[in-house]
Each structure stands twice: as C-alpha cells, then as structure tokens.
Amino acid sequence: MDTEYIRMTSPLLPLIGKLAGHRVLCIGDIMLDRYVYGQVERVSPEAPIPVLREQRESVTLGGAGNVVRNLVALGGMVDLVGIVGQDSAGYEIAEQISSLPQIASYVLTDSVRPTTLKTRFVANGQQLLRVDHEIAAPISSDTEQQILQRIENAIKESSIVILSDYAKGVLTSTIIRETINLAKSKNLRVLVDPKGRDFSRYQGASLLTPNRRELSEATSSTIATPEDAEKAARKLISSLKLEGVLAKLGGDGVCLVMKDQPALHDRATAREVYDVSGAGDTVVATLALALAGGVPPHESASLANIAGAIVVGKIGTATVAREELERELLRGDSWQGADKTIDRAQAAEIAERWRKQGLKVGFTNGCFDLLHPGHISLLRQARAACDKLIVGLNSDNSVRRLKGESRPIQNEASRATVLASIGHVEKVVVFEEDTPIELIKAIRPDVLVKGADYKVEQVVGGDLVKSWGGEVRLAKLEDGHSTTATISRLRKKEPSSQETTSS
Question: What does residue 144 show for φ and ψ, rounded to 5 degrees?
Fold first, then answer.
C-alpha cells in the first residue's frame, strides 16, 4: 500500500500565512442556523417529553454561509452565490452578510422559496430536537439562469471555486456542470463538498471532500479503514475524472488521494469533541484557501485537518481563525500542559462554549502581585461558586497606574504563569484597562466574585452581570495578608545604599 504517513508539526506554520488574501467563489445552499438554549428541569405533564425553559438564543450563517464564515475567519475574501427567501430568516442572512465587508453578495431573493432555517434546541450542552424549515426541491430553470448569470459575473476575480452542496435544490446538475466548465476555461480549481449517493453530477471537478458515509454510499463500499477510503477514492477519481478526493474520516482524520500519487493519511484528531456540526465546512474552506495560496495538496490537507480538529471542539456551527491554527501547531504534543493564558477574544469564545455545555462560568480579577494566602482564598471561593473560573489580570501598565511606578514587583508574564499554575484557575486573561469592564462584557460571566472589602454595588461590572441573569458574590477575606503591607515590610528590611555599596 503506497500510503505516506506524516505528523502535523511546526513545519506547517509558515504555510498559514499563505491562506490570506485570496478570493473564493462559493456557490451553494445558504441556511440560517438558530440555536435555542435553556434548562430542562422537569418532564411535561402532557406527554413524556422534557420541558425546555428557554434562556437565550443565537443565530448564525449555516450551510454555504458557514463555509463563507470560515473563509473570512481565515483571511479570505468571498463572492457568495445562492438563494434566500423573502422572510425573516432571509433578512437575517442578508444582515449578517452585509456586516462582513470581505463578502461580495450575489445572493438571489426568491419570493416563493423560503429560506432554509434549522432550529436546534439545546439543554446542558445536548441537542434535544432540531426543526428544519425548508423546501429541498430543485430550483426552476428560470432561477437556474439567474444563478448562472451571477456565477459568470462573480468568477472573474476568483482564485478558486467551492460548491457547497447540502441537497436543498440550489446546486442542480446544470449549475454544477456549467460552473465546472466555466472554471476549467479559466484554469480554476473546483472543490465540491458533496451530498447524496450519485456523485456523477460532479464529474470533472478538481477535488471532492466527502465524509465516510458519503464516500461509502457513492461507491457502494464499506469504509472501515483509511485503506478502504483510499480504494474508494481512487475509484471515484477514475470514474469521474477528478484531480483528487479528500475523505473526511472523523476520528481517523483525513485521507487525501491525488491522481497517480501516494495517498496521505493524516490521523490528527481533536482532543475533545463537542459538536461535529459544520466541521466539513471548515475543512473545505481551509483546503480551498491553502490551494489558492499555492500550498501543495498534501500540506493543504494537513492544514484542513487541523482546522477540522479545532472546530469540533466548539459548540454549534463555528469557525477557525489563522491564529488558532498557529496556536495548535505551536502547541504540538504539549496540549495538556498548554499555557492557560489567553486573550480577550479567546476567553469570550471559550466562555460561550462552556455555557453551551451547561457549565457556569465564573470571573474574578486583580493585580495578584506577590501571590499570598489571601489571593488563594479568593480564588478558591470563586472556583467554588462556578464550574469554570476565568481570572482577569491587570497588565504591568495598568498596575503602575493603579499602584504607582514602583509596582508591580513581578511582571505580567510572571504573575500570569503563577496564576495559571493554580488548580482553581481555568484561564488567565491580561487586560490593559484600569478596570475589567470590557473583559466582563466579552466573557459575560454567570458569577462575578470580588473580595468582601467591596460592597456589591461597588463591584465593577456587577450591574452588567446581574442584567443578563448572573450573580455577584463577595468572598470572605483572609486577615493579615496584603501585598502592599508585605512590600512595605520588605523595604524596611532593605540595607541602606551605603551598606549595599560597601558590601
């Protein structure tokens, strides 16, 4: 078996910079993903079903829209072609697209066909039910012609083409065939995220990115191993005149098979899997930008696999940014010992993921200069009030403004390292401002903890936390512990300048 095994390591790092700045034409089924989050505390007396007490909801672009979100997050620019309805979901999609300046919209509005809307009800991190509102019938011939006109206009500046097929009727055989022919005439690759059992309509495309089930059904094969995937992929390459196939094998990673080349089986997988929704969108987006940037197919597949591994560690249809790819590569095998210090954007995303898992997010903050038992007591009490504790740490500049030019004694990197080593602390975020109010707005903690030397109404951000249903707690202080007092005692014991010089 001609299979090349490689390991994802830092040599891929320089390639991440090649993802940005390319224009991608994305055509396909645009959806709106709606999530309703709440708590289940009882069973309905009307039927043996759980009663969801709704707490909040969120909406995001799904389907081909999620491919676009990933392209933008990775630094790409997008021409988007698809259809939405004249309904509230369609208006929401239009608003979200318009908020991203990297997207040029060639989206058609249909007065008859509703926008595809998927509503998921989630409690304690688990989906209870999904409701789909859609029409999956193929679009009319008149609509086909309008879509093709948009494709002809949009493809002029494109570097690569993605067909995101969710079998909702936009990617008809005619549109697929005409798009592939048009792209070939311009020497552009066409990547297809396929759907259904009949892949013959994708004939002549550059690469297909089926998952295990799709590859199995399309080739009437059993895909139990990467070797099985390679055989099935070579069958497709031969019958459909493809350049290659990237098979997404879940826990087994990916298998890239290029015509007349050894296969690549990249086994890298996510450390924690929370939600596989939209992972295929992330993979095809990363693969497209890497190829557009001149990255060889094998390395492009490895980068796409890393991105997919990251995104399944998030809840819902999510995206991956270039910075996350860099951190993952730098992290390497030291995942479990990875630095707990993160930035504000990461903290906001992680906090949201924890909440979607039904976990209570706590927050406290301070300078934590010369950590003492009083600090440890505060952190212990804060952690006892929540499931996951994020600590905001004043930067060196912030401490100087608050405490004077002689402080801090330890720089922010040292203070963050000490905090991160404490078991009660899940994440540490350094902030530059005098107060943590902006950090609190980003994280939206469920519990805000400060020492009892404050009153509840004096706690910065307390009113905000209570406004979204959170609580403010005051931690009991440990007597006899003060960084300022400790520093004062140390300075009294310092030798005079004359004694220092003479020694």
Answer: -55, -45
| Residues above pLDDT 90, as percent of the chain | 62
Q: How many CA atoms lie within 13 A of 300 on its CB side?
A: 25
Place of tokens 């400790």: 486
Active site residue 396: no
DSSP secondary structure string, 163-217? Answer: EE--SSSSS-HHHHHHHHHHHHHTT--EEEE--SS--GGGTT-SEE--BHHHHHH
Token pair, residue 409, equals 């004694």
Structure tokens at 481: 């512990």
Q: How does the average pLDDT of the chain come out, rounded?
A: 87
88-98 vs 64-73: helix axis angle to the nearest 10? 20
Q: Is 464 exposed, middle or buried (0-12, 13-18, 19+ CB in 10 A)?
A: middle
Distance CA 121, CA 352 (A): 16
Q: How far apart are CA 478 and CA 331, in angstroms?
A: 38
Say how far apart CA 461 and CA 438 lie, in whole Å: 9
Amino acid letter for position 256? L
Task: List the 77-85 sheet strands across, edge first.
Answer: 3-5, 263-266, 254-258, 244-248, 207-208, 190-193, 160-164, 23-28, 77-85, 103-110
In this predicted structure, the answer to whether residue 13 has a pLDDT above a threshold of 90 is no
Task: Report d(CA 383, CA 300) in Å as an integer.
Answer: 42
- Is 90 exceeded by the pLDDT of residue 70? yes
From 33, 193, 228, 281, active-site residue = 281
pLDDT tops 80 at residue 7: no
How many C-beta atoms surround the C-beta of residue 343 within 10 A?
12
pTM for the model stands at 0.71
pLDDT band at 210 (very low <50, low <70, confident <90, very high): very high
